[in-house]
Fold this sequence. Notes:
One of its GO terms (cellular component) is mitochondrion. Pfam families: Aldedh. The protein is built from 16 helices and 20 strands. It is an alpha/beta fold. The longest helix has 19 residues, at 41-59.
Amino acid sequence: MLAKRGSYSQRKVHVYFSHKYILDSAQATNEVIGRVPKATQEEMLAAVDSCSRAFHSWSETSILTRQQVFLRYQQLIKDNIKELAKLITLEQGKTLADAEGDVFRGLQVVEHTCSITSLMMGETLPSITKDMDTYTFRLPLGVCAGIAPFNFPAMIPLWMFPMGMVCGNTYLMKPSERVPGCAMMLAKLLQDAGAPDGTLNVIHGQHDAVNFICDHPAIKAISFVGSNQAGEYIYERGSKNGKRVQSNMGAKNHGVVMPDANKENTLNQLVGAAFGAAGQRCMALSTAILVGEARNWLPDLVERAKHLRVNAGDQPGADVGPLISPQARDRVNQLIQSGVEEGATLLLDGRNIKVKGYENGNFVGPTIISSVTTDMQCYREEIFGPVLVILEADTLDEAIKIINKNPYGNGTAIFTTNGAVARKYTHEVDVGQIGVNVPIPVPLPMFSFTGSRASFRGDTNFYGKQGIQFYTQIKTVTSQWKAEDATLKSPAVTMPTMGR
């Protein structure tokens, strides 16, 4: 492994430096807390070469041995979940409780990889004709690569390299340059679990590293999660170079609130899903469509959002932490202002919030914008901050029409107590992941993360059965052992046929 060995403490990330480095900062203070080496071209080549050299022996390693590595790995993650969460909060800013959830959801994927002996089974069909059998193997691709975003420093890398590696591939991981420390610790834990040197390599960088991954011929598959602009670019460039690419991108997730919904539960769910993680989730419920009389719930919704506590993520009682950077904060503030200028109503304004002791932090408080229409910039763009935009509809059909017209298809939810309404919604809405009274319907890893339309590029989704398909290729063997071959006197020169 090229992942550098280092120790991790609550307040500082220790890694080896090089003359070129990436600064890692605390988002509540904008102070530098650590450095990681920015990989040079030579170092990236060395990382891929290390993966390539390790591939032959790793792919030939018993599947039971690979399973044992990840059984040990999931235990090490469990043992270190609080330390990983502290590191995420320090680097990324989310609350400690949310950071533990980040690690836990990634851990569930690692636990899923431990079922590889069943997941990777092929298929057989004996006696398709006399003395002839056909069977398939699932085999690894080679070197695979992952490019992860800043918002889930543990979960999304754990969607990637454990799935790829347990299938027998070796892996090149590029974490976000904004949150590099967690990936380093995860790599160290995998090394401690017994993964051989070279099976996982970690590089740090930005555009040059992304282009390297898209272009290097030894890399056979790329997993990406992040923005639409980057995702479209990586999908196009990687695909042109003959690579498999799965690219999860942006979203505009709608929550439809029916008048018959359980009011108390629905309001709590909306507030949590819109403002948790400071809205920096691709599955955040950033848009609510209030149907009919549900529009009368707006004052209560605002009142609940007002009571959320904005603070540094490691402070007791914090509900909403800082955004990832000053630039992200400024962009969110600009999109809020655009809504005001285009005629929306600002019911709750989280701009200019000051957090005592963290005056230099990247904070935006919970914000609610109502009277929003689909042509407004605050609706058309993914805000990626603690902002909930409110649309209104007279009927369920009108709400469905709004959602299906939106280009994104990552997630959606409906809140209702009517089963017929829920069934109609789930059948007619064109979105990959749907929650019924569940605001953030991210599936557990025995299923797959199935965002669609402009939220996803590729043919095969993350984790679950589709994750195994993405990281493996099929080899089909048709064999014939004729009983009479032992005594056959002359060759057969006619065209071989099957099924006769």
